[in-house]
Each structure stands twice: as C-alpha cells, then as structure tokens.
Amino acid sequence: MLKPSADLIIGPDQSRYSLVVAVSKRAREIASEAEEKGEILTEKPVDLAVHELMEHKYIVVEPKQEASE
C-alpha cells in the first residue's frame, strides 16, 4: 500500500503532532467499532483512518494557541 506523505495531508497551518493525534484517535475508534460488531479488519485501523482523513470524512482541529505574554 502506498503511504501518503504527511505534507500532502495537512495544511500549512497544521502541525504533524495534531495529525498523529487525530489519526490515532480515529484508528482506535475504528478498532473499537470493529470489535463491538465482531468484524475482522482486512486493513490496519491506522491505514483506514488515514484514508478517511484524505477523503475528508473528518478533519484535524488544531488547539487554540494562547498568546504568550
């Protein structure tokens, strides 16, 4: 499977850390949903989460940064 570059997924104002956190949270949700339904996943949950992000099924929300004084 071809892995997309993080630079292609995130925008210029987004951090890689936020990307990793968002994908990992979604991957855990996918794995949990599959376990509850008794489904066997043929792809890894992280791969599914990355594809969903690329298809704009969810977005990465950056935390608001407070101005330091």
From TrEMBL:
Promotes RNA polymerase assembly. Latches the N- and C-terminal regions of the beta' subunit thereby facilitating its interaction with the beta and alpha subunits. The lineage of its organism: Bacteria, Bacillati, Bacillota, Clostridia, Eubacteriales. It comes from the Bacteria. It is an enzyme of class 2 (transferase). This is DNA-directed RNA polymerase subunit omega. One of its GO terms (molecular function) is DNA binding. It comes from Caproiciproducens galactitolivorans. Coiled coil: none annotated. It holds the Pfam family RNA_pol_Rpb6.
